[in-house]
Amino acid sequence: DSPEIKEEVLRKDDRFLTLLKDVYVESRDPPVRVKDGGGEHLPCKQEEKRLTKLGHLEALDVKKVPKGKISIVEALTLLNNHKLQPQIWTAEKIAAEYSLELKEVNSLLEFFIPFTVQEFPKETKKAIISNKQKKLT
């Protein structure tokens, strides 16, 4: 706000102007370099796909999956087949049928078990209901 500062800012200094005329700046763009991780979003190779083996459940699931993977419906189907007929649907057969690695199939069969529905006889239901009706004191 002071007039002295404004005057000092607006005043030209001849000595600095002559020094500024001697300055020469040369600028060049650096050569373009491709980053090593530049192709992260592009697939390195085309993934091999296979058609799913769904049978009558075809409308419920995807039509193609990458090799080495299975769909949810396929997983449930192969787990159920193994549970019902373990002699026929061995880990080796499942691995060959679905293009999976044997160690992954063994892990799948060990850690994932399909649910079983159990229906209780009617007399058991009555016994359970009668116990609930009693008041606890």
UniProtKB/TrEMBL annotation:
Signal peptide: none annotated. One of its GO terms (biological process) is mitochondrial respiratory chain complex I assembly. Pfam families: UPF0240. GO terms for cellular component: mitochondrion. Binds calmodulin. Interacts with NDUFAF3. PANTHER family: NADH DEHYDROGENASE [UBIQUINONE] 1 ALPHA SUBCOMPLEX ASSEMBLY FACTOR 4, UPF0240 PROTEIN. Belongs to the NDUFAF4 family. This is NADH dehydrogenase [ubiquinone] 1 alpha subcomplex assembly factor 4. It comes from Callaeas wilsoni.
